[in-house]
Fold this protein.
Amino acid sequence: MPATTINEVIDALQTIITESIATNNRIGYFAALYYKVTASVRDGIVKGQFENGPRMEKFDVIFANRYLDALTAWKNKQALSDSWRVAFETAERSSPLVLQQLLLGMNAHINLDLGIAAVEVSNGNMDGVQKDFDAINTIISALTYEVISEINRISPLLSLLGLHSSNYSIIIQFSIGNARDGAWCFAEDLLTKQDSAYTNCISTRDKTIAQLAGGLAHATGLMRITLWLIHVFEWKSPSKIIRELHDYQKEKITINPVATAPAV
């Protein structure tokens, strides 16, 4: 059953994490970090940091259910979005970096799911949901930049990606700032659609985001060589990596929940 409260979302994520550790499943990477995002939203609601706590919880639950439903569909071999399919398929491969796995989850969830969730919670008024939209993005952005630093322990040669700073790298390709802006534009466009036009708009967006996911999952040229070298020295045990990522729940993210996320 879909989650109806933010605590149910957190419980569902913890179940995914526990099962992933037990089965050595890389799907737990994104779940461990998404737990952190959701826990941060819950803490912000409890502390009154959002303009409208109940509305923020509703937004977060609708948003999270997009991920939870996609994962359930994947496990049951049912139809799901192409964007999530690429992310879950990549989680079955050992060669992509932990960072690539995390970015693929972010790609599907921000670039596709976030805009849909915004429309579903808006009741036809996007102005009323924009602060919540920006707040969730701020938390996700804070987590993303924090994670790039944190996984240096898991992936000690990750800094070699800096060799491609002037080229078309996976970090530049996945810009949180651009993802945020693109998700909002998508939501505004989707809000104007009804019936088959609504589903067609989502399908078209999904295909575009899945193409981006393909680029994140399959590097070429010199970038591929760099990723291979980084991977050689990266931790190899998914269970150990998940535990490491999940242990960081003990560390709080210090943010301003209503601030706009910085562009990359």
